[in-house]
Design goal:
mainly alpha
Length: about 80
């Protein structure tokens, strides 16, 4: 179960701060282990995006191609 799915069972709104606290709590307060897990999850997601981009034709998205990195000026504020 993902962190977001686990938190949707509560009345608390799911924000970046709530997710961060939940992820660290799931790692018994070890922020280093939490970051390692997030890096591995990000790597997996990038791999899946790369595979999907190779399997889908650009015509299905009317020429859209996925971006593997976030554009700097669109990063969410913390």
């Amino acid at each position: 179960m993902t962190a977001t799915a686990a938190l949707k069972t509560t009345d608390q709104p799911v924000t970046a701060d709530v997710l961060a606290r939940h992820i660290i709590q799931e790692h018994d307060g070890d922020s280093f282990e939490a970051i390692k897990t997030l890096v591995l999850e990000l790597d997996f997601a990038r791999d899946q995006l790369h595979i999907a981009s190779r399997l889908l034709s650009t015509g299905i998205g009317r020429g859209w191609k996925p971006s593997f990195e976030r554009v700097p000026d669109t990063a969410p504020e913390a």
